[in-house]
């Protein structure tokens, strides 16, 4: 069978699946709160399982809760082509981040079933556990264990804000499988995702052909001062941990701006103690997120922030502790897989451009153990990790069309 531009997925069916999944773990204003290993995550997994089994796929679940659904190939010795992303969301997440890649993979299989298309290589649709890393840091936790970058026992001991452990919660919701994590071998992996940035929409491009991914450092900083009354403590006698955080926030911004155009940085998660309106903060714990596609730039930013943050703490009389909470080096995706994506875009006639992923994705870890590439579609105003995150149905359809063609070229159509 020759691949032609007439071969397309069912965009209406894909969209309906996205909207149905979005009913699980609804947010407060139209998005989703389906954080990893919550009851809502378990419910979303069961819905996805039912859809996959109805499509004739067989399920495997590993000890990190990663879900794998296989469509057999004609060659029993051929390694599978994997496709997927994640179903978990931010606490105030959108309906498409991650979910589009998982359900786009399912729609790909449904389309092959509709058209009775067979491939030499099996095709496996995957849902990776805890990509977001909000409840249990770091991000891409389960794909990191799969790729041998992170230790499973260490991952099981990760705690959320309430002291609940990853391993215990995985078992509680019933998705701790018995398959050894990382034991699967892959012919290739493709991940479809919304851009999470404004470039594609601003330039009127249908598709981003992802060539590289930014590296990142997450640094958790704890500043310790002295709780005291805001009204009766003289200004020169304060040890204000909140002031230290404010100055480090400005520092992170200045460092990122000094390394333009290929660097970003901000303060994300913050816990202030005792968090009372008339008490000077005695302790603040917060996360620094810095990213760059250049490893030298990334590490230079980290070193500068660590040194100057220590200086700020000393000047204000604060204790400081800096922990490395998450890290991965910049990624160059597999040239052959990237070519398959570019071939698909050109065959289908969609407008496109090369793009570097500003966010981390499971594909960034899997790229260490298998040939990997990503497909991106625009999102409205580049907004993501926000309940207002939105995409157009035609964007989702175009991304899934490209995914279909790239996977079929790699999995080798036989009929």
UniProtKB/TrEMBL annotation:
Q: Which residues bind Zn(2+) 1?
A: 86, 97, 193
Record-annotated Peptidase M20 dimerisation domain positions: 214-313
Q: How is the cofactor bound?
A: Binds 2 Zn(2+) ions per subunit.
Q: Where does Zn(2+) 2 bind?
A: 97, 132, 385
Q: Which InterPro entries match?
A: Amidase_Cbmase, Bact_exopeptidase_dim_dom, Peptidase_M20, Peptidase_M20_dimer
Q: Which domain of life does this protein belong to?
A: Bacteria
| UniProt KW keywords | Hydrolase, Metal-binding, Zinc
UniProt xrefs under Pfam families: M20_dimer (PF07687), Peptidase_M20 (PF01546)
The species is: Phyllobacterium pellucidum
Name the coenzymes or cofactors required.
Zn(2+)
What are the recorded GO MF terms, alphabetically? hydrolase activity, acting on carbon-nitrogen (but not peptide) bonds, in linear amidines; metal ion binding
Which NCBIfam families does this one have? hydantase, PRK09290.1-3, PRK12891.1
Q: Does the keyword tRNA processing apply?
A: no
Q: Which family does it belong to?
A: Belongs to the peptidase M20 family.
**Protein name stated in the entry:** Zn-dependent hydrolase
Give the source lineage, highest ranks first.
Bacteria, Pseudomonadati, Pseudomonadota, Alphaproteobacteria, Hyphomicrobiales
């Amino acid at each position: 069978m020759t691949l032609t531009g007439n071969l397309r997925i069912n965009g209406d069916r894909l969209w309906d699946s996205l909207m149905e999944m979005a009913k699980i773990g609804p947010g407060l204003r139209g998005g989703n709160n389906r954080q990893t290993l919550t009851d809502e995550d378990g419910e979303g997994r069961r819905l996805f399982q039912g859809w996959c089994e109805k499509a004739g796929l067989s399920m495997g679940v590993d000890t990190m809760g990663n879900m794998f659904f296989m469509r057999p190939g004609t060659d029993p010795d051929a390694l599978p082509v994997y496709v997927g992303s994640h179903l978990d969301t931010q606490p105030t997440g959108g309906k498409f981040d991650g979910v589009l890649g998982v359900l786009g993979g399912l729609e790909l299989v449904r389309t092959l079933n509709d058209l009775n298309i067979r491939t030499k290589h099996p095709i496996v649709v995957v849902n990776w556990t805890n990509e977001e890393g909000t409840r249990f840091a770091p991000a891409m936790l389960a794909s990191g264990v799969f790729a041998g970058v992170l230790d499973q026992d260490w991952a099981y001991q990760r705690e959320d804000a309430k002291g609940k452990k990853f391993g215990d919660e995985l078992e509680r919701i019933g998705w701790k499988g018995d398959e050894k994590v990382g034991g699967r071998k892959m012919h290739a992996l493709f991940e479809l995702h919304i851009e999470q940035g404004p470039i594609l929409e601003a330039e009127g491009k249908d598709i981003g052909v992802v060539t590289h991914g930014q590296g990142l450092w997450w640094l958790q900083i704890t500043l310790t001062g002295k709780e005291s009354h805001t009204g009766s403590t003289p200004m020169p006698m304060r040890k204000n941990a909140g002031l230290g955080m404010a100055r480090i926030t400005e520092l992170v911004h200045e460092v990122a701006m000094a390394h333009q155009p290929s660097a970003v940085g901000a303060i994300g998660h913050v816990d202030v103690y005792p968090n009372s309106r008339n008490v000077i903060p005695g302790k603040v714990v917060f996360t620094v997120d810095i990213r760059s596609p250049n490893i030298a730039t990334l590490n230079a930013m980290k070193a500068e922030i660590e040194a100057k943050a220590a200086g700020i703490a000393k000047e204000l009389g604060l204790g400081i502790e800096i922990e490395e909470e998450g890290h991965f080096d910049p990624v160059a995706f597999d040239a052959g897989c990237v070519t398959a994506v570019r071939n698909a875009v050109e065959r289908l006639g969609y407008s496109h451009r090369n793009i570097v992923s500003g966010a981390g994705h499971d594909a960034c870890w899997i790229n260490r153990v298998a040939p990997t590439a990503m497909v991106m579609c625009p999102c409205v105003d580049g907004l993501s990790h926000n309940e207002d995150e939105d995409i157009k149905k035609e964007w989702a359809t175009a991304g899934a069309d490209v995914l279909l063609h790239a996977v079929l070229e790699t999995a080798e159509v036989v009929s």
